[in-house]
Amino acid sequence: MRRRSLKLVDWLWAIGAGTVVEDEIGFIEPTLDLEVRRASEGAVAVRIYFDLELRPPWRPANAAGRRDVWIDLLLSRNTAAAGAAALEEELRSSPPEPHESPAVDLGDR
Hints:
Elements: H1 2-17, E1 24-27, E2 32-39, E3 43-50, E4 70-76, H2 77-93
Helix pairs in contact: 1-2
C-alpha cells in the first residue's frame, strides 16, 4: 500500500511542479486510474476513473477497464502539491504494514 501511495505522492508532486512525465497512473487495489486531461500554467484537469469495487451500485461491472464512470477535478498546481505533502506526511506518521518490505522507505523526500 505504501509503495502505491508513494507513486501517487510523486505524481501529485510532479503535477504541482509542472513536470508530469506520466499523464496517467493506475492502481489495482483500489481499482482506479487518474489521468491528466488538460494542463495550463496554474492548473490541471484530472479525470479519476472508478472501476470494479469503486463503481456506484447503479453502474455495476463484472470486468475491469470500462472507463465509463469518472469525475473530473480541476486542481491548481498549489493544491496538487499540498495534497502530495499531506499524503506524504500521513505516510511518514503511519507504521509500516506487517507484510511490507523494509525496502519501502520514505527517506528524505
